[in-house]
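Fold Annotation — chain and its backbone

Fields — amino acid sequence, structure tokens

___
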Amino acid sequence: MLRPNLVSLIFCAVSVLPMAAQNSPVPTPGFDALAQLPSAEPNPLTQPTLTPGALLLLELEGRFSKSVAAGGGKAFGSWFADDAVTLNNGRPAVLGRSAIASQAQWDPKTYQLTWVPQGAQMGPSNDMGFTWGRYEGRSKDKNGEPVIITGRYFTVWKKLPDGSWKVALDASANEPPETGECCILPKT
């Protein structure tokens, strides 16, 4: 007699467990069949919550990246507002489009800068927003060996009175070294 009651109790506990997990305020891995892995690129089909403003910013970021891939530093500088700012690793802030353009003098044949936005958010007034993602810079050292830098970026966009959009702030930071690489002696 004890055996059927024990089997019934186990069956009851096992059948209630998935319902308890669904009602749990803490997400329980393994019970949410609809959960999606985070994507590196925004996709309106898998992320239907992207607003029209965020989609506009992602489209601007894509045009900016494509322009720089083709035109190098000259194209990079052309996307900035007159009063823009850039912030980069270990360097002072660069203020104004003229100063930004004068420092962005690379040729796309010798240095390739590419990036992929991972997200965007438009401000409530729809005249300013930001994007973020990862970038990669590729060049060659003096011996012709490939040099690759990677990192993260943050771009603030603003709508100008004429209706065009320009970069107000561009900030980037190189990826930190892999675990253990900080303590490796340089190769000779």
